[in-house]
């Protein structure tokens, strides 16, 4: 019996990984995280749901897209991504864009209606995230957009 349990656990992990490998949304998130724009575009054309939250952080692709650049954010927004989508920690794309000092992405997200008052579970607001980036222009911009 003790030998069966580890084998069963390994089999379940294998099956889970196979099912994720065939999942369009999982692959879309992976493509964005790897900076593979062509693959992301193909997966969206195949029907990947740009708003589906995937493991391990239960986040839609838009939340992490700012780390890879504005082109990924624009692709997702063009395909009806919810720009105010939150991950399991209530972090939004705008918080991440502020945190990583992505001024062009911050401007775009705000122009598209992103919530400048978003706060994640660590009490990090968009303004706090901008301050952590140490980008003075971004800090001024996010303040002028109403962030507190």
Give the C-level CATH assignment of the domain at 49-144: Mainly Alpha
Strand content: under 5%
CATH superfamily of the domain at 49-144: Ankyrin repeat-containing domain
Using the alpha-carbon principal axes, give the shape: globular
What is the name of the CATH architecture of the domain at 49-144? Alpha Horseshoe
Listing every helix as H and every strand as E from the N terminus to the C terminus, the arrangement reads HHHHHHHHH
What is the CA-based Rg, rounded? 18 Å
> Spans with pLDDT under 50 lasting ≥5 residues?
5-21
GO cellular component, one term: BRCA1-BARD1 complex
Pfam families: Ank_2 (PF12796)
InterPro entries: Ankyrin_rpt, Ankyrin_rpt-contain_sf
GO molecular function, one term: ubiquitin-protein transferase activity
